Protein 1
Amino acid sequence: MQISRRLAHLLPGGDDGWHVHYRAQALAAAGEAVVPLTVGEPDARTDPAILDAMDRAARAGATGYAPVAGLPGLREAVAARVARRSGTATGRDNVLIVPGGQAGLFAAHLAALGPGQAGLIVDPFYATYPGTVRAAGGRAVTLAGRAEAGFAPDPARIVEAARVEGAGSLLVNSPGNPTGQVWPRATIEGIAAACAEAGLWLISDEVYETQVWEGEHLSPRALPGMAGRTLVVGSMSKSHAMTGSRIGWVVGPEAAVAAMADLATHTTYGVPGYIQQAALWALTEGGDALEARIAAPFRRRRALVQAALGPCPALRLLPIQGAMYALVDIRRTGLSGTAFAEALLAAKRIAVMPGESFGRAAAGHVRIALTAPDDVLGEALDRIARFAAAQAQAQAQDRAATAG
Ligand code: PLP
């Protein structure tokens, strides 16, 4: 039997750079000491106080079916948080609780796109974006981010691509993965205006909203006229180190939330009640102080990266304005991102992601996840700097030999 075209073509053919990650895992499984800086997962585990809340809720009986759209109290807590942080009126019916940001991205695209419509994504992008658009029955169309504009797309190109491709949505991500960029107000305003002009839904992936090191996070939903066409995806994976609990939300117009709740009835059937109650505890009792504690190591490690890689002439470090990644331009070594990552793993047993995994615009870069303890990361960064310097020197010698 044939599997459907939609699933058979979910992932593009060829190599997406994840082989470096899998090779690192295989080496580690074989007993080798590998420093894994590939995956965006906080190295800290979920806070014991959140686990206690989960345990209490489960033992008190919250192990049956939970309300599919989310516990009313949790929807209200998320609405209050969003209203407080964005200054935009938000009520319980604007919030759908979903099993993680990824499920939120999928639901948002299903809500936004008609069959075969294009979903615009910005290159470089988080690795699942094209497949998410395709899984929702859309065509993934990439818009090149402009390096000089923090990898944001040109608003005029958004309007043009929407018209030419027949697009229904644009997906954006600030603070960004893999870029580490936090787009300023003018950029967000330009994107929002383009979406309004082109009649697009704006899907705003804000899962790194609590990790802002420079500038300010602005949700496009807060801009005049945008609440009716914006779907904000949030998650507690990064903000609360709850990756495995699968808990997040989509915030949007009431009709869209009701439609996505119908979708949930036919797909996920919601999120376990004890997870939701733990999330409610984390958002209300844990509050901003808990979030700040979880974000703190990444702020610290950002400084480590700047100190270790900033002075290295073979590398160009992009400013790490937010999120938990450093995107590093390695083109002065003469290698592609993939070749650099492969060679670094082979020679130094350090695993980083090739920029090519995140689209064309990040080719010639590698992404370093700041997800190892400070001492391990610090040592790995020094080794990366030395490795890059040696590669650049070898390439200079090759050039001289060829010229001579
Ligand atoms: N969006 C971005 C930009 C991400 O980096 C990730 C995870 O790495 C997700 C969404 C999905 O996160 P989750 O489904 O764990 O909430």
Protein 2
Amino acid sequence: MTLRYDLHCHSTCSDGVLKPAEVVRRAAARGVDVLALTDHDETSGLAEARGAAQAAGVRLIDGAELSVSWRDITLHVIALGIDPACAVLCEGLETIRSGRVHRAQRMGEELAAAGIAGAYPGAMKFCASARLVSRTHFARFLVEAGHARDTRDVFRRYLVRGKPGYVAHQWATLAHAIGWIHAAGGQAVLAHPGRYEVHGKMRELLSEFRDTGGDAIEVVSGSHTPAQYTEFARYARVFGMLASSGSDFHGPGESWADLGDMPPLPAGVTPVWKDW
Ligand code: AMP
Ligand code: MN
Ligand code: MN
Ligand code: MN
């Protein structure tokens, strides 16, 4: 029997809508056999997820999605199979999180300057803990306040470079992020590479990621098109990296894909789970 993997999703411990146990139960109900919970810069949901996974008969992989600055763009690196108690990783994640509140306050100021009042407290209402505040929480506020139709619409008109509410931020370096993941015994996966605006520098990004110790590319992502599955499968083969698959589920009706929705990995790649 071929197992169904979903190695990228979010709970209320970052910018997801469902609690960790609810994410696990939804994944189980949708036929996922192996699930990685990968909250942004955070592992606090894993304990609850583990209990639910045992009850639901799902194999849970301890994960996280680390925010990284590479040149002038933000990358996301998925950690899979980490020890969440690893001190090096915990301290690293804490340094990534520590800038979020200040950035969010500045985002509130930028939106106020553009005529949208109350965005910082408004975003906080949607998030479980201030240290986790993300653009997604601002997006939910902007939808609720009638400034956009849905979160997708928000990210076309606000919160991105050149638009109201965008605040540049310095996250972890690629070398630090991959180092922390490896210190915790995990694998480092370049998340949704199709979403980065690298302007012809994809090969540079992938070779630097690999040479820094990166293990895998997220070939199949809820935010990739089928043409991108093929494109990144080729890159994985050419660069000698493993291939991963994840929905990037954030909540019912809000995400690109629901839990377990993805097709199998394209032929010819080696799955990131080959030695699990
Ligand atoms: P942050 O880490 O605070 O910069 O927030 C990044 C999050 O915003 C991502 O993890 C997504 O959940 C969300 N996001 C970014 N771009 C989009 C988009 N185009 N559509 C929907 N959500 C997005
Ligand atoms: Mn997110
Ligand atoms: Mn991401
Ligand atoms: Mn994600």
